[in-house]
Design brief:
13% strand, alpha/beta
Length: 261
């Protein structure tokens, strides 16, 4: 129970990696704010389930990650409900696949806003409280695409490279304040985000569904296996542990060997 009496905000946590991280932090004793879109009844089921299963307080924020004011309010609401935001996990993300010359401008703006700018706005809002208490853990979900590129994903790759740079900068600024800042870079994780981009990849490359899974997605990962949300969540928990006290500014690859090549 390394996070007993601590509280966490996890963006993009109504499903997939974010939900796995929120549940893993709650299992370690943290109160959690979950955030994201979905059917109200599904979100409430997950929120209530966290409280029941782990005996912590769980609240939900519908904050839109494209709106800085709503992000700031989300952090303030968590501080009011829990007394503090000790752990911030920037996980919200979307994807769009298109040749760069056809890439819709509104999709570029949306991806940069949700995948990159939202992390800045959340960090900006959470840091004063962390500095005042002399303890904090900021973790962002980056991607193997924070280190390498793939075609047809210009906005996503740009945003994830940005997350890696933001992580390093914030880590240096907060190094003497008891606050660590790190990012986790998974390869392909079997989540709705990955599953939903398969049809666009099929269309852009003229491939079947099986070809996209085996020849595009898993082709990148030497292990030929998808990463699981729970594996990413376990690393997030580790980064909150005393053992990771001196880990800051790091970009941790969890990609089945993808970026080793």
């Amino acid at each position: 129970m390394i996070l007993q009496s601590k509280s966490a905000v996890v963006t993009g946590s109504t499903s997939g990696i974010g939900l796995a991280i929120a549940r893993a932090l709650a299992a370690e004793g943290a109160n959690v704010l979950i955030n994201g879109f979905g059917k109200p009844e599904d979100i409430e089921k997950e929120r209530a389930g966290i409280e029941t299963e782990f005996g912590v307080k769980a609240i939900y924020s519908a904050a839109d990650m494209t709106k800085p004011a709503e992000i700031a309010t989300m952090i303030a609401d968590a501080e009011k409900a829990f007394g503090a935001v000790d752990v911030l996990v920037n996980n919200a993300g979307i994807q769009f696949v298109s040749p760069i010359e056809d890439f819709p401008i509104d999709k570029w703006d949306q991806i940069i806003a949700i995948n990159l700018s939202a992390a800045f706005h959340a960090i900006r809002a959470a840091v004063p409280g962390m500095k005042a208490r002399g303890w904090g853990r900021i973790i962002s979900t980056a991607s193997a695409h924070s280190l390498v590129a793939s075609p047809f994903k210009s906005a996503y790759v740009a945003a994830k490279h940005g997350i890696a740079g933001l992580t390093k900068t914030a880590a240096l600024e907060l190094a003497t304040h008891g606050v660590t800042v790190n990012c986790i870079s998974p390869g392909y994780v079997w989540t709705p985000l990955v599953e939903n981009q398969i049809p666009a990849t099929m269309a852009s490359r003229g491939l079947t569904r099986d070809q996209v899974i085996n020849d595009v997605l898993l082709e990148a990962q030497p292990t030929k296996e998808f990463v699981t949300p729970e594996e990413v969540a376990a690393i997030a928990v580790f980064l909150c542990s005393p053992a990771a006290k001196q880990m800051t500014g790091a970009n941790l690859s969890v990609d089945g060997g993808w970026t080793a090549e």
